Amino acid sequence: xxxxxxxxxxxxxxxxxxxxxxxxxxxxxxxxxxxxxxxxxxxxxxxxxxxxxxxxxxxxxxxxxxxxxxxxxxxxxxxxxxxxxxxxxxxxxxxxxxxxxxxxxxxxxxxxxxxxxxxxxxxxxxxxxxxxxxxxxxxxxxxxxxxxxxxxxxxxxxxxxxxxxxxxxxxxxxxxxxxxxxxxxxxxxxxxxxxxxxxxxxxxxxxxxxxxxxxxxxxxxxxxxxxxxxxxxxxxxxxxxxxxxxxxxxxxxxxxxxxxxxxxxxxxxxxxxxxxxxxxxxxxxxxxxxxxxxxxxxxxxxxxxxxxxxxxxxxxxxxxxxxxxxxxxxxxxxxxxxxxxxxxxxxxxxxxxxxxxxxxxxxxxxxxxxxxxxxxxxxxxxxxxxxxxxxxxxxxxxxxxxxxxxxxxxxxxxx
Length: 415
Prior knowledge:
By secondary structure, the protein is α/β, with parallel strands linked by helices. It has helices at 3-25, 28-38, 81-95, 169-179, 211-224, 301-314, 402-405, and strands at 56-60, 67-74, 108-113, 127-128, 134-135, 185-190, 197-199, 203-206, 266-267, 278-279, 327-328, 337-341, 353-359, 362-366, 370-374, 385-392, 407-414. The termini are far apart.
């Protein structure tokens, strides 16, 4: 593909975005001029896809209080939609077979939205060279090409071939607003076998044979704000759950995990600036950690804790309760009782969810989604409150703040 053609496509894509903004916000006359201008761009016309016509597949549903995770496809034509659904199921399935997410599958609602692109694949524009030509920064055999896909996913972002970018965030926001208004997390799968991905505000991945591992790695970036534990460049250093300037064992962010095999305070390598930053693990031959450095490894304890804590920040596991009224009274009758039930409780697998029922602040029952409070007999004190607390007692978390911040309660007044 010639440089002139690629430049033409880039210029037209920019023009399309500018005119789309005019269509949304300009006066009627400017809207008309914009429509006429767009009609003169036959090589890269605007995708006039109605969100109402898109199919939304619910792959898992655990309640309105669970985290909504939505996957969309790019570069999947109308004939490829069955393949997209298979790819989405495969990526979701692998994520929730990976620790720590295998314990918390019930905390997520999973959706796949079928988005039709005009062409298959992904755009590969390369980078501009000093002589004005374009080339792949890492000499991939994938030819330079521009594909007419809905989200305009591309490779070679920031001069890194595997780093993907999205050219149609406006379209993404529009679809999510119409089809998944409660969306907490979003990802886009590209219909290409080329290796690549990105994790930031959204997750980007491909159908490459390593895509499942890339998907989990990029999800950890997006969901847990985790850093890469390999050297990605001086521009990527920051204070993050698994990256810090602090090298002191008594104050480093992951000091409570330093007794775990493989966890330490390891400097990055690559540049003088890199040597001033530290990470909790260093991948070695046959080592167990960490997926943020090497695909195929487990998450280290530090990253695992950050992911679990982020989950609890986003999600209250107590959903609907059968006694929805906050003020209750005993029904008539000497032997009457009040019954309480956690109707929609998100539980971690493996028995790590602790449920405690209290009457007037005193523990009345430990465990169980149901609780019965009988009417007091003559001479017994009348109860004033019933409360239930739910917490995750996972060994994956050692932070003392967990017990303070992530205990969820519901209380009823008894009159």
